[in-house]
Structure formats: C-alpha cells, structure tokens
## 1
Amino acid sequence: MPAYTDRLLSLPEYPLAGIPEKKRELIARGMDVIDLGAGDADLSPPPAVIERISEAVRIPTMSRYGFALGLVEFREAVARFMKRRFGQDFHPIKEIVPLIGSKEGLSHLALAFATKGDYTILPEPGYNSYVGGTLLADATPYKYALRPENGFLIDLDKVPAEVLKKAKVLYLNYPNNPTAAVAPKEYLEEMVRRCKELDILLVYDNAYSELAYDGYVPPSIFEIEGARDIAIEFHSMSKTYNMTGWRCGWACGKQEYVAAVAKVKSFVDTGTFMGIQAAAATALDKCADWIPGNVAEFKRRRDAAVEAWSEAGFPVESPKATMYIWCPLPRNIPSAAFAERLLQDEGVIILPGSAFGPGGEGFFRVSFITSPERLREAAARAGRVLKGMQAKAGDEVRSAVRRPEERQGMARA
Ligand SMILES: Cc1ncc(COP(=O)(O)O)c(C=O)c1O
C-alpha cells in the first residue's frame, strides 16, 4: 500500500467520528443512551419543504446533474432571503454559490486562498472544517484560544506579527459553535477594518443566524461597512429548518471570492440534488412564518438545559443563540475523562472541550437537541458522574496529603 501523505497524517481525529459506533455498542448492551453530541435536532423540517421535495422527486429533470449553476430558483430564493433578512443585495448567479451543506464550502475554501507557507487564523475550540480545510490545503492553522476571559473573541493584536504577515484567511463564527458566544457589532467592525488593512479574507460562518433568543438578532457580516471588499459569508439550511441531513447551504460575497470557491467545487462535485435545492427554495421563500415556532421549541429546550445542567454542578449562562451550552468543569476534572465516564457509566453523549483542541479544555458541549425531559435526565446523570469523579479526586488529594505525614510518623517511630 502506498504511504499516507503528510497531509492526511496531519489531520486530527474528527471529534464526532467514533460516536455512532460507540452509541451502537451501548444500545446493544441495553443502555438508555441520550445523545447530546452533534448539533442535530430530533425535529422535522417545515411541512411545505417535505411536500415540495415529494413533488420534485417525480419531475425527471430534477434528477439530472445540477452542475455548478444548480437550480436558479434556489439562488434567487437565497438572494431574496439575504435582502429580506439582512437588507443586502446579491446577484443570484455571480455572488451566490450553492453548497452541499456549508461544511463542504468552508472546507474547500482554503484550497482557493491558502497554500504551503501561508497561515489561516481560526478559533479553538471551533468548527472543524476550518482546521481541516487549512491542513488539506497544506497551509498552517494558527489556533486562537476562545476563553471566557476574552469573551470568546479572537484579538488580532495578540496574534504574532509573523503570523499576521503570512495569514490569508481568518475564520469567524458568531453565533459561535461550540461556545454559543455572540459578537458585538463593534467587534465585527474592527475585524473588517483589520482584515482590510492586513489583506486577509474574512470567512464569516453564519450557520446559526436564525437560531437566536430573547430578542437577539444575529447580523450578517455584510451589514458592516466595507465587508464586501474583504469577506465571504457562509449559510446553512441545516439548523434553521432542521435539514441537517439534506446537505444544502450557500456562500455569498463579491464575485471574485464566490467564483474561486465555485471553481474548486467544479472539480470535486456536481451540486446538491436539485430536488433538495427546490425544497430549500420553498423553505427560504415560504417558511418565514414557521421559523418562530421552531425557535420557540429550541428556547424551551435551552431553558430546560440551562437550569438542569447548572443545578447539576455546571453553572452556565443562558446563551443568546445556537443549540449549545458550553459547560465549565472543575479544574481537576479533564473533559475527555469526564465525557468517557458519562458515556460508559450513564450512556450520555456530550462533546469534551479537549476534542476541539487544548483551547477547549475545562469545558464540554451539550447540544440541546432533544426534549426538556431528556435534557433534565441527562443532566441528573452528569451530576452523578461529576460527584463520583470529585469524590475520587478528593480521595486522591487526601491520600497524597496523608502520605508525607505517615512517612514522618514512621520516621519518628
Ligand atoms: C459553526 C458551524 N458551521 C457550519 C456547520 C455545517 O453545517 P452544514 O454543513 O450542515 O450546513 C456547522 C454544523 O454543525 C456549524 O456548527
């Protein structure tokens, strides 16, 4: 067998890769598994979307190759959405590129803008296609730790000058996965200004733009003056419309950026099934009234998760957006060990912060993707595991403290 490339070997393990297999094993052992791992809700897409795809599969032309153009109706629906929601105009053909889910586009983007010797700047913890895309492009990721102390924001002033000089891409994602942080408008203004100054492409991942609570309305990066010159924005059908498995999203921005992504894609794929694009167009055009009810269901889950997990020993603030809570752990409990115990002893799947790299240590992510009852049950189980691990850590500390005394005692005797 030919040796693996350095490129392949440089890729870390994908955080969610082993979970379906582990979950199957636990279910086979008769365990009642609660899966709060992926950001993948147990809810249905809008009925109109299901009707539309049911019709679309019966139309023979929908089953043909979409190619890079795809279904023009989808592009036009995206343009209408961007105008209605953010007040921004995009040319449906020149300034929008349909994607097989935003992950696909985010991963491919680096192939167009970064290469060996270049840096990309990305959040850690952060969505894994930023680091994956960078490594597949032979570029070097500069990982910036998102911590509560910095408001989960990247401060370019703290990035070494050498890195800034060679940086080609900055990935920003607000509302943020996994920390659920949101970014103040002044921060986005500063990032646009700095990226222009430094000639760095600002890749704005806006997958959670429609999943926000308590009156918070996430902006588009294009609402920031000057962003058109230096930014490209990614959107997803997955979270807004419970369409994770359908694989449909888009990127938009000025023609030169969008065309570069489209060119890479023209050699690796031939577009999402056009029936899905038709259904996605229906979602964007006809389901604006359906979204608030869906968000209200997520809010019910958020409120239950925040209350139950805080009571269980993981004090979390109520997030303004996303489907995640980012739970802190006591200093002496490593997140991977906690996740493993919670999985093996109690059948609850969460994502340890360390799965996102060292910057995520000290936290774990809970996806509030299931009913309040199950979220409460999972929190109670997690509380038991925490208590057990703390008691054990306490015993170890106590015995470590006792040993020197015992030794002294023995010496005196
Ligand atoms: C921040 C972020 N970006 C992008 C994606 C990818 O979404 P999709 O490929 O389903 O459009 C996700 C999915 O979890 C995400 O959390």
Note: The first helix runs from residue 6 to 10.
## 2
Amino acid sequence: MQTLRTLKALQREGLLTEDPRLGPRLEEAAEAMSIALTPEMLALIDRSDANDPIARQFVPSASETEIAPDELSDPIGDEARSPVKGIVHRYPDRVLLKPLHVCPVYCRFCFRREKVGPGGEALSAAELEAALAYIRARPEIWEVILTGGDPLMLAPRRLASLLARVDAIAHVGVIRIHSRVPIADPSRVGDELVAALKPKRATLWFAVHCNHARELGPDQRAALARLADAGIPLMGQTVLLAGVNDEVATLEALMRALVSARVKPYYLHHPDLVRGTGHFRVSIERGQALMKALRARLSGLAQPTYVLDVPGGHGKVPIGPGYLGDDPDALLVEDAFGGHHRYAR
Ligand code: SF4
C-alpha cells in the first residue's frame, strides 16, 4: 500500500468522518496543505472511532478554513530570523538548518504548514553551500539542528554527506536531528540510514516527534531501538493538541511509552498560532493543569518541559506551572500533590 495523498484516498479508507455537506470546505483545506498518511500510520488508526487521535492529526478538517485574527502564516517567526536561505538563527550558539520541506506525513497542525509539502523547495547545491558557509563563519555556533520538513527524507547517502559537511566545521559540537520518520515511516530506519547517522567528531542527538502512545506500535518501537542500539541518544517532542492528547491519562501513557522506548521526553509544545488550527488549540491554563497532574503521576525522567514558542521569532520559554507562592517572610512551596510548605528565603 502507498501513502494516502488525496481526499478520495482517505474517503476510500473510511477516514472522512465529517458531515459530507462540508465537502467544499474540506477541499479548500486540502488545497491549502498537502495530505500524506503513510500505511504504517494508517495501520494504527481505529477506523471505528470517528474521533481517533491519530487520524485527527492527518485527515483534513473543514475547521482548517476558519482563520482567527491572531493566527499567523509564520507563527514562530522563522522568516524574521533567517539570515540565509535554509538557516534560522534565533540564539547565538545554535542554528536550524532546513535542507528540505518534505515529510513522510503532513500533520494538519504543523507550525510550518504553509511551507511543507512535496512541492516545497529543497535547498539547491549553491544554497546549501551558502548555509554551511554561514555556520563556518560563526565560531559561536555550537549546535546545528537539522529540521525541515524532515531531514530523514533525504536518501541515506545524501544525509551522510550533509552530516559530514556539518561535522567538518570544527566549532560545531552537536548535531541534532528532528524527525517524525521513526513513527511515520519506521521501515526507512534501516541499516544504511542508521550508519549515516554517525558523524566522526560531533555528537549526534535525535529528537522524535510523537503525540500519542498508540503511535508507538511494534514497528515504531523497533525503529527507535535500532537508533538507540547504535548509541544515538533519543529525546521526544510532543505537541499538546486538543482531541489528541489533552487528557492527563493520555499524556501519562505517552510519556511512559516514550521512556520505555529509551526516548527521554524533552518538550511538550504549546500549540502555535498556526492559521486554521484553532480546533487543535488548548489554553495555557489547561496545559499547566495537565503538567501539574503529570508531576504527581510520573518521575522526573518522564517529565517533558512545557514550552511556548513566543510568536515573532523570540524563541521558546518554559511556561510552568509554578510551585512557589508568596508569604511575608518565607517562600510557600507547593508539592506535587497540592500540599503547601513554608521554605525559608
Ligand atoms: S512531520 Fe513535522 S514538519 Fe512535517 S508536517 Fe509534521 S510537524 Fe510539520
């Protein structure tokens, strides 16, 4: 079976569960952003559930045509922080390097939804050289984060060549890869690809995007095990999404599943102000309440940091919850179970 790429193909699989009268708006949503749902993700969907949390991430919704006034086409300000095509430079010591805009699946809530897609431009050889020259000329850049799109959509040989060129820049200490491939297209994580992920000098870290425990089926866990067995440190990135994972038991199950797969939960992203994604958004207060509930249920090993990407390109900040309250002559500390305790200043 091939990746599903059209509304018709989704319909054939029984995945279009919205009122058929919304058809024109669904078509509008599908035109605004590419569709891709791999057979491996399709196999994880419970088709008898009209609200399946995996289907919800990839099947277009008529709600995508509702654009709120505060939603942005570039919600995290990539453009404002892009000195050279393919580079985003927000913090002194690190850059994003985006070699391509193709992904194995297209997530309807994507913060780069207006950039990603099979027609999205990849960097030409000259543009890639200019991006690498930018990094080479700045000794303060210690970490290079390969993102996109999904860098694992590059053929292993091209990925190895790109990593070797970044690795040849002596001041780069860490190369980080952000990818959804181990979840969405786990068979792609074969020997050749794993071998490509071995820079000779710099340390490579791997961040995997996963939003629900059910995304970690046997094939996905095997792909992650191949990476972990190769000595690659793994961390997890999750987007907090209404109707997908905005319940404490769902998040708890996901964090436990990630840790069991040797993936350290890293970030829980508050959903960005992406155009047409209001139906995925939860309030920050709700996110903080969920994090508080997780603190009472999970060890530190399984706790992600809840972060907001400040709109306009100002970077990420942790957004709580807080555990310190005011008291005239001491700090008032709240424990994980809601008890309050005085602690001398
Ligand atoms: S895999 Fe990542 S970059 Fe690609 S559509 Fe999903 S969220 Fe966006």
Note: The pocket of iron/sulfur cluster is lined by residues 103, 106-107, 110, 112, 116, 149-150, 180, 209 (CB under 6 Å).
## 3
Amino acid sequence: MPGYQAPLRDMQFVLHELLGVTDALSGLPAHAGLDEATINQVLEEGGKFAADIVFPLNHPGDREGCHYDATTRSVTAPQGFRQAYQQYIAAGWPSLACDPDYGGQGLPVVLNNSLYEMLNSANQAWTMYPGLSHGAYECLHAHGSPEQKQRYLPRLVSGEWTGTMCLTEPHCGTDLGLLRTRAEPQADGSYRLTGSKIFISAGEHDLSANIIHLVLARLPDAPPGTRGVSLFVVPKFLPDARGDAGERNAIYCGAIEHKMGIHGNATCQMTLEAATGWLIGEPHRGLNAMFVMMNAARLGVGMQSLGLTEVAYQNALAYARDRQQGRSLSGPAAPSQPADPIIVHPDVRRMLLTARAYAEGGRAFTSYVALMIDRELNHPDEAVRREAADEVALLTPIVKAFLTDNAWIATSEALQVFGGHGYIAEWGMEQYVRDARINMIYEGTNTIQSLDLLGRKVLMDNGEKLRRFGEKIKVFVMQNMSDASMAEFVGPLAELGEKLSKLTGEIGVKAVADRDAVGAAAVPYLRVAGHLVFAYFFARMAKIALASEHSGDDFYQAKLGVARFYFARLLPETAMLIRQARAGVDSLNVPGLAQ
Ligand SMILES: Cc1cc2nc3c(=O)[nH]c(=O)nc-3n(C[C@H](O)[C@H](O)[C@H](O)COP(=O)(O)OP(=O)(O)OC[C@H]3O[C@@H](n4cnc5c(N)ncnc54)[C@H](O)[C@@H]3O)c2cc1C
C-alpha cells in the first residue's frame, strides 16, 4: 500500500525562501499581517488532514467507486468520503481563502494552493468535491447579484453546500457554441431550464446538503454560437425563505460514468427537466462569467497533477531504496546483502529524479502563479493588478497543460520503478497513472490550452505578455551572468529565452499566410514555454541553494542536484520540441487521412 507525507520542507522553501511570500503579501492590505509561523502552521495542519483523513480513503475509494440508485436517482460516494468531508468542513478548511464578508477566513490564494496540492496527493477523487465548490464560489463571487451572493456564498464558504460546473453536452465538449440546453424566462424573473449535460463531476452525491449547479444554457432569443450562451445558477434544492435547502428542483442524475480513473468522484449525466434557475450576470455573456470558474479550475487541475506527481515520487523512492535486484555496475553497494537496492542503478535514479524535478518545478511555478493571483485580486494599485492579471492569463494554460503532461510522464516513470509490481493494483501506482490521465483532458484539453497560449495569449497581443514575462527572466540572467557558479543555469536559460522569442516570431509570420500554422505548432510550443518557466525557477532555486549559509545542508545540496538534473536531462527536450514546432503543417496533410 502506498504512503504519503506532506512535503512541508519544500513548501516552506518555495513560499519563504524562493517567493518571500510574507513580504510580497505585506503589500496587499487584505493579507498584510500574515506571518511565516501562521503559514507554516496552516501547512502543517493541512498536511496532517490530507495524510491522516483523506489519504487512507484513496485506494479503497478507487476500488469501490461511486454507487448509483436508479429509483431515487441518487449517488453515494465511496465509504468514508462523506465522513471525511464532514470533518473537512468542521475544521473550516473550505473557507480558508474565501471572503470574510461571507464567512471566509480571508487567507491568500497561495496558501490555499498548497493545501490543494496536499489534498490532491492524498486523494484527487475526493478533493474534486470541495475543489469544484471553490470554483463555483469564485464565479458567484465575481458575477453573482448581491442577492445571489447572500443566498449561496455563505453556504459554499462553509462547505455545507457544494458546487458543480455544467458545460458539456453529448454533442458539445470543446465547442461550447454548440450547446442546446434551453432556458425559458418566467414571469417571476426565474428561468426554466431543459436539456442534458454529461460528464458533470460531483453532479450528484451524498456529501453535502445541497448542490449548486452552475449551468450554461441558451435563452430563446440567443444568437447562435458562443455569443448566445448564458450562465444560470440551478440549485438541487431550492433555497426556502430562511435560505435552507427546500423544495427539490428538477435537475437529476440519470447515470454515472464508468471510467478509467478518479473512481471516487461521481461523473454524472444530468438532466434538466424544466429545472428552476436564475441568470448569473448578463444574458448571452455566460462564457465570460464561466471563465472565472474555468480559470480557477485550470489552476486546480494543475494542482491535481502536481499532487499526483509528488505522491507517486514519494512511493517510488521508498520502493527503490528497499527493493533489491542486481548489483551496481561500479561494484556492490550492499555487499552483505544478496543484491543491491535498485536505487543504485542510474536509470532508476533517472526515473525518480524525473518525477521529483517535475514536482519541485511545478511547486515553485504554481505557488508563484497563486501569489500573482493574490496580487491581481488585492493590490491597491490598479496598474499592478492589471499587470498581475496579464501574467496569470499568460501562465494559466502553461500550468494546466505542462503540469498535467508532466504528471502523466512522472506517474508512469514512478510506476516503472516498481517493475511488474507497479502494474499490480495493490501497490497503488497504477491508480496514480489512471487518475493523472483525465487531467490532460478536462477543463479544456491540452491542445486547447496550447492554442489558447500561442494563438490568444501570445500572437493576438503581438507577444506583449510573453515579452513582459521574458523581461523578468532577462533581468535575472543579467544579474547572475558574471557569477561563475551560476553559469551552468544562466547560460541555457538565456539561450532558451532567445530561442522561444525567435520561434514565436517565425510562427507569427507563418500564421499570417496560414492559420493552421498555429494549430500545427501549438502543442510543442507550449511545452517549450513550460520548460522556459521551469528553467527560470530552477535557476532561481539553485541560486538560493548556492548562496544559503546552510548550503552544505542536505536539503540545499539536494535542491542543487535536482536543478542540475533538470538542466542536464529534461531541458534538452526543448531542442526536439522546437524542431517539431517548426515542422509546419505540411507533414500533417497526409492524402486520404481526412476522408
Ligand atoms: C471524468 C470527466 C470529468 C469531467 N468533468 C466535467 C465537468 O465537471 N463539467 C463539464 O462541463 N465537463 C466535464 N468534463 C468534460 C470535459 O471537459 C470534456 O470531455 C472536454 O472538454 C473535451 O470535450 P469532448 O470530450 O467533447 O471532446 P471533443 O471536444 O470532442 O474533442 C475531441 C478531440 O478533438 C480535439 N479538438 C476539439 N476541438 C479542437 C480544436 N478547435 N482544435 C484542435 N483540437 C480540437 C480535442 O483536443 C480532443 O483531442 C469531464 C470529462 C470527464 C471525462
């Protein structure tokens, strides 16, 4: 059976030494007083909750799955999920980063982010129940009417009610302009919604007293396509006069999907049978409002993958230290034993370090983005808020696609460390691979993230956001280029920055003549951009490790070692990716393929 321990030391390194969060937050009035000790205490308690309460349910939850009762159209989550959720809300975790006006604790996003890494390491399927609720909270907080906020936010903040996002329909996934669910206005200002949604995570379950569905649908006068999509709040139980869950609304789960992974999370087919709902925000501007939730969810999916990468690494490391097979090529490492532990074999260490580098790089990167979100939300200067928002917009598709691709690689390498035992269910490693796979698909497939990055975030603003982020890298390079101990990091970082700029220009020129040039280059392009970001953070972490007065300590030595591994073994992938991104569209036009 696998194990899990929250990586508190590395989280503290990232938050305090790399990002200096208390200083950074001190400029934000909402978080000015937050000190290091409080942050560490929250991390520690969150780590205990994840490891002691949620983690033990992961493997059994995967085996048991969710249960659907066709007579009552109800869903029961695996054994223990409901109790763990009750403990979660009793301890106040859902409210951590929520607005105090609605009962939240007002702590920063960057701290909530770390909590979510730990919860996802412990149990991705379980964590999706509160995770989606947090997305619904953010959407209603940003776009709900004052009355909707009063009605729903306190219950979502306390965790008493959970949330969903209902976008997908059988014929309509990526292209939401095709959706058909209809909303008819009523005399009392409400709407009647009719239609079918599929693949709705946490659409029905027994964890909470009510489920608040955020549903995309069309009004009768809606123009075709994405410009005719509106957003509605459709509660499972209509709030009564006191605001409690009252009459049952006509939104039902018709079935749950049987799927590859995240078995403990109910993926529901939902039918709306003239269900009562209320419009959120402006008519026909639903996608705009839903983007708040989708962006939160995209970062959330990155955190799911970071969590899986970390837990898979931890278990593969423990196994590799213990499992004895063969002898070290450079002479026995454990002569008194019949064989050496497999960690003596260079390729086993390569697999382990691949997962570890993706975890440590991902932790640094996502914590940075979360801190930028805090700045976007709370900085007193509007220009700073806008700049932070631009950077978050640029980096969000990279978090989503790069981290989820990395987790697929990392969990697979971690499984491989176990040899045949990795393929056997009781070791738990194959579950991590299965669970990791969905993260590349939902919340916009990784292809769509890549198109968003290259097409919208980079080319459509003439590379301005990318250039501004690149400036940060250039400043770091300039500051460190004369330091001989940093040359091994700064040189390749500067070189990759230049290559990415050049590549961006080349694709931009090709795209003028043929828009398919963007589609043909986007996926390798995003991966190159992801590596640039990781190289930047690994170089910064290496600098801290080299400069620390404790640089001889194991932690800093290992940090430096992982950074060197990353530059030597993972970053070179960019040479191949750049060639792929340059290959253009012609090689994808094979005669007869599209017929
Ligand atoms: C377990 C699970 C949970 C989910 N949870 C939710 C949820 O809570 N709420 C919700 O609303 N949905 C949810 N989804 C749906 C999910 O978001 C969609 O499956 C996803 O967006 C892709 O849509 P699709 O499956 O229809 O694939 P399609 O849109 O049919 O795409 C098929 C393939 O074509 C590619 N493609 C499509 N369009 C383009 C394009 N323009 N350019 C290039 N390539 C393209 C895609 O990248 C993909 O590889 C969930 C799905 C699963 C499996």
Note: The pocket of flavin-adenine dinucleotide is lined by residues 165-168, 173-174, 199-201, 259, 267, 438, 441-442, 444-445, 447-448, 451, 519 (CB under 6 Å).
